[in-house]
Amino acid sequence: MRVIVIGAGAVGGVLAALLHRAGHVVAVVARGEHAAAIAADGLHVDGGWGKWRARVSVVGGDAEAADLLVLATKAHDSAAALPEWAGHDGTPVLVLQNGLGGEQAVRDALPNSPVAVGLALFAVSLTGPGRITVTGPNGLTLGGEDDAVAVTEPVLRHALPAELTVTDDIRGAQFTKLLINQVNALPAITGLSVQQTIADDRLRRVLTSGMVETVAVGDAEGVSWGPIGGVNADAVARIRERGRVAADELARRLATGMGDVPNPASMLQSIRRGRVTEVDQINGVIVALGGAHGVPTPVNSALVALVHEVERTGEHLSPADTLARLALALPSTTQD
């Protein structure tokens, strides 16, 4: 199969390398030094899924026809990335992103293309131009339109050395991933790994408060919380019933599942590269939907503002400064 991966960063790059290793013809869209390194010497992958080099080609929107497009840009870059691919309208598309919005961008730009959505649980880091390390060799959840899933599922099952779960309710799974992705903002603000932020009692209070808000917003939206990884509707129900106490248990479990290799999360990786993060598509979505349903989201709102501040300044905040800036947004300890 011929596959084009639009956005060969950490997640898109490792998928491109896996597909190439499985015998598919793979081309990627990348930019800057990363694109130059891939064109010169391929994608170099190491970590949890082994060590190999994938000699993929670098292309643009004038590339020849493909059997599958993978949209793996940041969600906020989707609308800008897709117009040059109008000549590929009708080709199935797999959206592989954090946050919401990517699939709608595909439908707007490529109205005849069936759309599948992949939710990656594996953790990967872009460690240099053309170089990717797999720090968490976990699975992927797949759903979406039947025609796109029918093309994508066998390809992923062949290439992915981890569990592939197919769901009939990808929106429910997306909201569960939004809950998990509450771990993302604090590393971007502080410069610490996910494990370090969860280990800090003060920062974990922020994280768990954001999780409680996310569950309240998803419930108001009428979401049927879908399972993703080890997080399911029962875990959400415990947060709904027990608030931050149950969210604290979930946060600790997520950190344990990440192992000892520091996980910077995607937003911190963007900050380190001087790029805009996807905070608006993760925490910002919770704020927007909360506003629509009358659900207060002060913690998520404050996290969005602080991540954008770090984007602008390039300067991280200490845990103490982070807590001071978030003090008014946090619930009192008597509400735990």
Automatic annotation (TrEMBL):
Function field: Catalyzes the NADPH-dependent reduction of ketopantoate into pantoic acid.
GO terms (BP aspect): pantothenate biosynthetic process
Gene Ontology MF, one: 2-dehydropantoate 2-reductase activity
Family annotation (SUPFAM superfamilies): 6-phosphogluconate dehydrogenase C-terminal domain-like (SSF48179), NAD(P)-binding Rossmann-fold domains (SSF51735)
Record NCBIfam families: apbA_panE
Catalytic reaction annotation: (R)-pantoate + NADP(+) = 2-dehydropantoate + NADPH + H(+)
Family under the similarity heading: Belongs to the ketopantoate reductase family.
Sequence ranges assigned to domain Ketopantoate reductase N-terminal in this UniProt record: 3-143
Residue span(s) of domain Ketopantoate reductase C-terminal: 169-311
Record pathway: Cofactor biosynthesis; (R)-pantothenate biosynthesis; (R)-pantoate from 3-methyl-2-oxobutanoate: step 2/2
Source species taxonomy: Bacteria, Bacillati, Actinomycetota, Actinomycetes, Micrococcales
GO cellular component, as recorded: cytoplasm
Keyword terms of this UniProt record: NADP, Oxidoreductase, Pantothenate biosynthesis
InterPro entries the record matches: 6-PGluconate_DH-like_C_sf, 6PGD_dom2, ApbA, Ketopantoate_reductase, KPA_reductase, KPR_N, NAD(P)-bd_dom_sf
Pfam family, one: ApbA
Protein name according to UniProt: 2-dehydropantoate 2-reductase
Entry's EC annotation: 1.1.1.169
